[in-house]
Amino acid sequence: MRNALIRYRVMAYVVGVLLIVLVCVGLPLKYIWHNDSVVNVTGVAHGWLYMILIITAIDLGRRARWSIWRLLAIALAGTVPFVTFIAEHSATKDVKAKLAWNAEHPTEPEAVIADPQA
């Protein structure tokens, strides 16, 4: 789960920074000064990397056993500037708590239960 968290965090930061550049730099350049070069580059990059963010979030969510609602919230966070970082912080806090709990409570080998019909 640790490696999945690292992959998710990297993608969350990259997508979050690209979205901020797109919204705070690219859109004013496009609509005020009629220069859409930043929008063309960062918009495409954000779109493709957002899909990778979704994949890493699903992978992490599956390992951390998140609900579908939490995954949807994380997916939507990648579309609102600055919210990606809040979602990443929340996800990291949750996963680190689960990792700490798992370290304190290692699973014991399950007893083999004989099948009465076998």
Any key phrases for this structure?
4 helices; 118 residues; elongated; mainly alpha
Task: Report on the architecture of this protein.
Keywords: Cell membrane, Membrane, Transmembrane, Transmembrane helix. It is a multi-pass membrane protein. It is found in: Cell membrane. The chain is mainly alpha-helical and 118 residues long. The protein has one domain. Helix content is 78%, strand content 0%. Helix 1 runs antiparallel to helix 4. 21% of the residues are buried.
Number of domains: 1
Overall 3D form: elongated
Count of β-strands: 0
Spans of at least 5 consecutive residues with low confidence? 110-118
Question: Quick one: biggest sheet?
Answer: none
Q: Give the end-to-end Cα distance, rounded to a whole number of Å.
A: 36 Å
Question: Secondary-structure element order, as H and E?
Answer: HHHH
**Would you tell me the overall average pLDDT?**
88
Number of helices: 4
SSE-based structural type? mainly alpha
- Cα-atom Rg, whole angstroms? 20 Å
Helix content: over 70%
- Fraction in beta strands: under 5%
Topology record:
Elements: H1 2-33, H2 37-64, H3 68-77, H4 83-104
Helix pairs in contact: 1-2, 1-4, 2-3, 3-4
InterPro entries: DUF3817_TM
Domain DUF3817: 7-93
Subcellular location: Cell membrane
